[in-house]
Amino acid sequence: MNRYALEICKKLSASPDWVSGEEMAKALGTSRVNIARQVAKLKEEGFVIEASRRRGYLLTPRPLFNAYTLQAGLDGAGAEAGELLFFEQTSSTNLEAKRAEAECGLAVARRQEGGRGRKGRAFSSEEGGLYFSCFFRPRRLSPFDSLKAVLCAGLAVTDALKELGFACGLKWPNDVLLGDKKVCGILCEMVCSADEVQRLILGIGVNVNNPLPPELTEAANLKGRGDDLDLNTVAAACVKALLGRIGQLEEDPAGLLADYRAACLTLGRQVTVLGEGRRFDGLCTGVDDDGFLRVRTPEGEERVVTADVSVRPAGA
After folding, report:
1. How far apart are CA 270 and CA 10, in angstroms?
2. What is the number of other CB atoms lying within 10 angstroms of the CB of residue 203?
């Protein structure tokens, strides 16, 4: 990404009035010719920018989501995640994260052709949603601790959406719910040796403005019936919250689990567990120190490592 174009994007976005090309050139330590060249590049990215020899440049505000607007939003939120890889379309941001040469960063796509959820399920990824993978090399995290990373991601997205004003809840392990419908999918993958995680990839898909297939009756998007939401704002909030929770995962995993337990709607509820060829009902009594679910049944307590867990309606 061109540094000059990014800084020009920030200056034009921050001003409701004309911005002098000469003043921008002085501030960025470059020439007015280069300013004009970078403005032309921004126009190619979809920005509507007027130019006047006397007044400078004026940005016409319109909802855009590209590498420049996203980076400006991340910088404005103080969300320094490393290298930004932006794709108009890709098979999967998790795959792009695995291919990335940088040690840490974000792989973001406007649309995914092969979005995946847990257990290899397809994840609808039409344009209008937020699809990104955060990749990094964690400290003090073993492969056995991978579930804690899953909980970390779900908690972070819940934090971010609540900060944006959405009354979201969290169902074990990482389903973010708006009402009783799912608005976010998370896929955690690792590149690791026998005892060390060399790269952790947290793939996150948030239904924002994207249309949903009619068969997905248990899913919803944040847009609802209102106007389109700014994807840059949603992305910046999610990434900032995720970076904070990742730091907590590395430095204070016990504190992370305590926060997760406080936010998890599954605790204390009657649940149905389906997995590994078994189905049983019981009362969710807690999340243990490894992140696994504890369910009390008439036959005794079960420790749920991986399964589909549905929360039964009150009184059912």
Report:
1. 50
2. 27
Locate 11 and state its tokens: 């200056």
What CA–CA distances, in Å, run from 102 to 5, 168, 199, 303?
22, 33, 11, 38
Q: Is the pLDDT of residue 174 over 70?
A: yes
Joined tokens for residue 32: 């007015």
d(CA 182, CA 239): 19
**185 token code pair:** 């999918």
Q: Which of 77, 210, 72 is nearest to 86 (CA)?
A: 72
DSSP SS3 for 19: strand
Give the dihedral of Cα atoms 81, 82, 88, 92; nearest 10 deg.
-80
Query: Is residue 204 a contact partner of residue 188, using CB atoms and an 8 Å limit?
Result: no
Residue 86, SS3 per DSSP:
strand
pLDDT of residue 73: 93
What is the average per-residue pLDDT within 188-197? 83
**Reported confidence tier of residue 217, pLDDT bands at 50, 70, 90:** confident
pLDDT for res 117: 54
Q: How does 176-188 read in b/e, with b if 16+ C-beta sit within 10 Å?
A: bbbeeebbbbbbb
3-state secondary structure 268-316: CCEEEEEECCEEEEEEEEEECCCCCEEEEECCEEEEECCCEEEECCCCC
Q: What is the pTM of this model?
A: 0.85
**Structural domains of the chain ordered from first start:** 3-60 (1.10.10.10), 67-263 (3.30.930.10), 270-311 (2.30.30.100)
Rounded Cα distance, 98 and 189, in Å = 9
DSSP letter string, 135-203: EE--SS--GGGHHHHHHHHHHHHHHHHHHTT--EEEETTTEEEETTEEEEEEEEEEEE-SS-EEEEEEE
Structure confidence by residue, pLDDT tens digits, 112-150:
986 665 555 556 678 999 999 999 988 878 887 878 999
